[in-house]
Each structure stands twice: as C-alpha cells, then as structure tokens.
Amino acid sequence: MLKDMLRAAAQEIMHAKDISGQEAAKIIIDNVGNPIEVDPKDVGAYMGKINDFLIKFRKSIDKKEEK
Q: Where are the domains of the chain?
C-alpha cells in the first residue's frame, strides 16, 4: 500500500514538473523523509505526510498555472 502511494506520488510529480523518477523520489524524500527509515508501526503517519505534501504540491502547481 505504501509502495503504491509512493509510486503514484512520484508519477504525479514527474508529470507536473516534467522530471525523471529519480528527481521525483528525491523531492518526496526531501519533503517527507526516507520511506526506508519508517518504522512499520508509523507507516500510516508517513502516508499522511505524503498526502499533506501532495496537497501543498498541487496548490503550488495550480498557482503557477493561474499566472
């Protein structure tokens, strides 16, 4: 489930910014932390961080498109 969420988030970032998967993964890690370091009992909280980041990311993309 976490892997699917990470993949979807990376794809969304890749398409929005026209960048590679590695660059998208770096953006995710820089903003929400490394998924490898997440304790299994904290996966839900980590997924929440990804979701919060994507909401902010989408808003920033929308603002750029309005200009």
A: 2-36+43-66
